């Protein structure tokens, strides 16, 4: 992997840049079919297989994979759905559970050896998810609160001096209906991208100073790079799960805001 | 190696439409299999489990209550039986004592009766012996007197009187001796 990232022609150390997120097509002429796309398909299949192995024939007394699946299911239900959706939780669990697992597996690819690329570090993948959530939320809000009330409930919170609505209304409109959905995607994309970039940087340091150009002065730096790579990989494993959790959590929150007027 | 080709990195914030199509398709497929088919199964199982556990708890508490009731019943019956037994024992003891007393009474009465009968018999025998003896002694005395006096006492009445007088003397001396 590191070798692929390193322009070997140069003797100078070059930090990996945004280029490491651009992948050429795997099959000539099929521009869409690159490594992230392949990983997205494999990851989807993996999620389906894992969940199928757990829940295809659920038993009253769980065994093996079902135990793991139930732990995951109950984590999403208790930590993501219940705090936001309360008694509506069960209705939205199919979406939230799928969302959490899909995002987490896609993130996890960033730390799987030989794969080592988090799919969610390509903005397109989080963007389509948050776009889907946006469409869902707009539909739910207009259905449950009324096509106009849905917007005015947010734009004109009661109990403020009249003149201040001039400021509040546009801010609320933009932030609630657009910005927070954009940041929903960008948050996930940016953390995955930054994590991948920083691990690539440290592994490149290790590779360059220990293998490409071993010098007495550079060696300690190379060792440091290897150690940091290991530590940051552990940290990244945590961040991957955390971001999947946050993504699902925000989805649950947006759905609840659409179902019930916030104020 | 690939990176050299990607020297001109595209703006990472602009989503690629092909990626969105692939990602959206992948997510919808997962949502169908996981969200539509599999999650409802585990939801049903979890609900069934809650039912089973709550039902089981309820059944257990019912059974415990039933057992408690049966135990109480047995205890009551046992206490009653103990009470009854002690009552019977007491009664038996009383009856036993009574029977013993009665038997003793009877035995004593019998003994008394026997003693009395024996006394009566003895008295009768004595009377009889006495009467016989009296006649005998009378005859013997007369014989003796006749022989001594040498003459028959001609007068029967006199003879009778003499004998009686003698006997009375004899009896009174006899009584004095006794």
UniProtKB/TrEMBL annotation, chain A:
Residue intervals passing through the bilayer: 37-55, 92-117, 123-142, 163-182, 188-210, 217-235
Pfam annotation, one family: ATP-synt_A
Keyword ATP-binding assigned: no
Gene Ontology terms for molecular function: proton-transporting ATP synthase activity, rotational mechanism
Major site of localization recorded for this protein: membrane
Location relative to the cell: Cell membrane; Membrane
Record has Mitochondrion as a keyword: no
Superkingdom in the source lineage: Bacteria
Keywords, sorted A to Z: ATP synthesis, Cell membrane, CF(0), Hydrogen ion transport, Ion transport, Membrane, Transmembrane, Transmembrane helix, Transport
GO terms for cellular component: plasma membrane; proton-transporting ATP synthase complex
Membrane topology: Multi-pass membrane protein
InterPro entries with a match to the protein in the record: ATP_synth_F0_asu, ATP_synth_F0_asu_bact/mt, F0_ATP_A_sf
Entries under PANTHER family matching the protein: ATP SYNTHASE SUBUNIT A
Family per record: Belongs to the ATPase A chain family.
Purpose of the protein: Key component of the proton channel; it plays a direct role in the translocation of protons across the membrane.
Name by which UniProt lists this protein: ATP synthase subunit a
Organism: Streptosporangium sandarakinum
Automatic annotation (TrEMBL), chain B:
Transmembrane segment boundaries: 20-39
GO MF terms, alphabetically ordered: proton-transporting ATP synthase activity, rotational mechanism; proton-transporting ATPase activity, rotational mechanism
Domain of life: Bacteria
Keywords assigned: ATP synthesis, Cell membrane, CF(0), Coiled coil, Hydrogen ion transport, Ion transport, Membrane, Transmembrane, Transmembrane helix, Transport
Location relative to the cell: Cell membrane
Membrane topology summary: Single-pass membrane protein
Positions in coiled-coil regions: 57-120
First-listed, main subcellular location of the protein, grouped into a coarse class: membrane
A single cellular component GO annotation: proton-transporting ATP synthase complex
HAMAP family for the chain: ATP_synth_b_bprime (MF_01398)
Subunit-structure text: F-type ATPases have 2 components, F(1) - the catalytic core - and F(0) - the membrane proton channel. F(1) has five subunits: alpha(3), beta(3), gamma(1), delta(1), epsilon(1). F(0) has three main subunits: a(1), b(2) and c(10-14). The alpha and beta chains form an alternating ring which encloses part of the gamma chain. F(1) is attached to F(0) by a central stalk formed by the gamma and epsilon chains, while a peripheral stalk is formed by the delta and b chains.
PANTHER family: ATP SYNTHASE SUBUNIT B (PTHR33445:SF1), ATP SYNTHASE SUBUNIT B', CHLOROPLASTIC (PTHR33445)
Its job: F(1)F(0) ATP synthase produces ATP from ADP in the presence of a proton or sodium gradient. F-type ATPases consist of two structural domains, F(1) containing the extramembraneous catalytic core and F(0) containing the membrane proton channel, linked together by a central stalk and a peripheral stalk. During catalysis, ATP synthesis in the catalytic domain of F(1) is coupled via a rotary mechanism of the central stalk subunits to proton translocation.
Family of this protein: Belongs to the ATPase B chain family.
Record-given protein name: ATP synthase subunit b
Organism in which the protein naturally occurs: Streptosporangium sandarakinum
The organism's taxonomic lineage, starting at the top: Bacteria, Bacillati, Actinomycetota, Actinomycetes, Streptosporangiales
């Amino acid at each position: 992997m590191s070798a692929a990232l390193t322009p070997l022609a140069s003797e100078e150390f070059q930090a990996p840049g945004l280029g490491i997120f651009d992948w050429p097509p795997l099959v000539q002429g099929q521009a869409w079919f690159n490594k992230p796309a392949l990983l997205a398909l494999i990851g989807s299949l993996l999620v389906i297989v894992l969940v199928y192995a757990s829940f295809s024939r659920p038993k009253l007394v769980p065994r093996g994979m079902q135990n793991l699946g139930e732990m995951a299911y109950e984590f999403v239900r208790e930590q993501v759905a219940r705090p936001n959706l309360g008694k509506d939780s069960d209705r939205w669990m199919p979406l939230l559970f799928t969302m959490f697992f899909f995002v987490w597996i896609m993130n996890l690819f960033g730390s799987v050896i030989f794969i080592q690329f988090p799919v969610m570090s390509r903005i397109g993948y989080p963007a389509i998810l948050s776009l889907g959530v946006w469409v869902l939320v707009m539909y739910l809000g207009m259905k449950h609160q009324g096509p106009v009330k849905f917007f005015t409930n947010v734009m004109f919170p009661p109990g403020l001096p009249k003149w201040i609505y001039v400021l509040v209304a546009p801010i609320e409109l933009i932030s609630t209906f657009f910005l927070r959905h954009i940041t929903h995607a960008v948050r996930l994309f940016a953390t995955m991208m930054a994590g991948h970039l920083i691990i690539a940087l440290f592994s490149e340091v290790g590779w360059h100073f220990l293998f490409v150009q071993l010098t007495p002065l550079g060696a300690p730096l190379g060792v440091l790079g290897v150690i940091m790579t290991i530590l940051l990989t552990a940290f990244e494993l945590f961040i991957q799960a955390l971001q999947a959790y946050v993504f699902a959590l925000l989805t649950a929150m947006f759905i609840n805001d659409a179902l019930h007027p916030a104020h | 190696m690939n990176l050299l080709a990607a020297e001109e990195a595209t703006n990472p914030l602009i989503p690629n439409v092909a990626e969105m199509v692939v990602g959206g398709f992948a997510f919808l497929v997962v949502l169908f299999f996981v969200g539509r088919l599999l999650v409802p199964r585990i939801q049903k199982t979890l609900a069934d489990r809650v039912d089973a556990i709550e039902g089981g708890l309820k059944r257990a508490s019912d059974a415990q209550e039933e057992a408690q009731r049966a135990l109480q019943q047995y205890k009551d019956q046992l206490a009653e039986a103990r009470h009854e037994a002690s009552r019977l024992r007491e009664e038996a003891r009383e009856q036993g004592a009574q029977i013993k007393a009665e038997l003793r009474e009877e035995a004593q009465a019998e003994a008394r009766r026997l003693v009395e009968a024996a006394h009566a018999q003895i008295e009768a025998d004595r009377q009889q012996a006495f009467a016989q003896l009296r006649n005998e002694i009378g005859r013997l005395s007369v014989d003796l007197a006749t022989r001594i006096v040498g003459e028959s006492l001609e007068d029967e009445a006199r003879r009778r009187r003499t004998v009686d007088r003698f006997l009375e003397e004899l009896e009174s001396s006899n009584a004095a001796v006794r």
